[in-house]
Amino acid sequence: MSEERIIRVGTRKSQLALIQTNNVIQMLRSLDPTLKFETLPMTTTGDRILDSALSKIGEKSLFTKELESALIKKQVDFVVHSLKDLPTTLPDGLVIGCVCKRDNPFDAIVLHPKHQGKTLQDLPAGSVIGTSSLRRAAQVQRIYPQYKIENIRGNLNTRFKKLSEENVYDAIILAVAGLERMGWHQCISQCGRLQVLTPDECMYAVSQGAMAVECRADDEATLQLLNRIHDHTSTIACTAERAYLRKLEGGCSVPVSVFTEISDNQMRIRGGVFSIDGSQVVQHTEVVNLLFPEVPIPSQNAFVGIHCQTPSKKNEYTSAWAAGERLADVMVKQGADVILAKAKATSKEEIIKEHELKMKKQEAASSLNIGGIN
């Protein structure tokens, strides 16, 4: 890259997204202080729709479509995402140029100040737990059926304000990585209001905790630059998780979870599919030696959208990708497809009902306006 070039970086406008983007820029600057960057914040569909649960919006690419459009039009050189927001199938011509070192992937309960010092299991029956995620809701409901789960939308700042000021929620569920990046984790923990959930309580979302940088597949200069901040272990884990999710045809409208561990070239990936109320569950674990793929190594250089820049590591990408697909196949045989079909049908019905309700409200408002004119 020439010193004169200004690298244009696309990002969402939220405080967390800007922090994540700045983290990526600082990683690159630490390797080459001469690099110059320009940040272009954008508003996405998911940022604009704040009155509905993500599962009820009924659209993919909620937090990525506008950013990817700018990338395709060459208005930006790369885009920084939370990898869990990126669909498993990317637009033609785009790839994930790198996955940065994964932060804590787990979820945490943040308690209302009035419950300081308690744990989730200490809350009284009927307590309201806020989350916009069907995955989190299903898993918590499965273990704690005595609690009520209510939708809560907005960025992290908005959710914290709702928790502390509206007195509606007894606790909310958030990703630990987001809390840490915002600099809030230690303070909340010291106040006795934070409880990190274990995998047995709540497995995390596919690729949760990982930042990804998306770019054009033919932009060799940017790919070479991003390769310098690529984390191999995180990439392999996320490759397996994304392959698992794509084979299940899951997304934010269905409760799909995962837990992955890698040690000494061995990967253990555990998947979970839940009914919306948490009453039904299918879980399975796959263990694989990453150095010895059980399927032929394919010719392509991208695995579920993640670009492999090192040919000597392609066997590990292949092993991870195949393990994720195998995990999904086994779970489908155990009935995961039936649970997912019901969850998708329920979400679709809720989308239709919500749309009809909005139309009725608009008609009622229109009638009132007409009456006022007369």
Structural features, described:
This protein folds into 2 domains: 229 residues, 3-Layer(aba) Sandwich (D-Maltodextrin-Binding Protein, domain 2), CATH 3.40.190.10; 90 residues, 3-Layer(aba) Sandwich (D-Maltodextrin-Binding Protein, domain 2). It has 12 helices and 15 strands. The relative contact order is 0.13. The protein is of the alpha/beta class and 374 residues long. α10 runs parallel beside α11.
Short synopsis of the structure:
InterPro entries: HemC, Porphobilin_deaminase_N, Porphobilinogen_deaminase_C, Porphobilinogen_deaminase_C_sf. Helices cover 40% and strands 21% of the residues. It is of the alpha/beta class.
Kindly state the percentage of residues in helix. 25-40%
The Cα radius of gyration reads: 22 Å
- Count, helices: 12
Query: Low-confidence stretches at least 5 residues in length (pLDDT < 50)?
Result: none
Spatial strand order of the main sheet? 2-1-3-10-4
Tell me which CATH architecture of the largest domain applies here.
3-Layer(aba) Sandwich
Structural domains: how many: 2
Number of strands: 15
The CATH homologous superfamily of the largest domain is named Periplasmic binding protein-like II
Query: Roughly what fraction of the amino acids lie in strands?
Result: 15-25%
The computed structural class is alpha/beta
Q: Tell me about the biggest sheet? A: 5 strands, mixed
Assign the CATH class of the largest domain.
Alpha Beta
Order of helices and strands: EHEHHHEEEEHEHEHHEEHHEEEEEHH
The overall pLDDT average reads 89
Distance between the termini: 68 Å
CATH domain topology of the largest domain: D-Maltodextrin-Binding Protein, domain 2
Shape by Cα distribution: globular
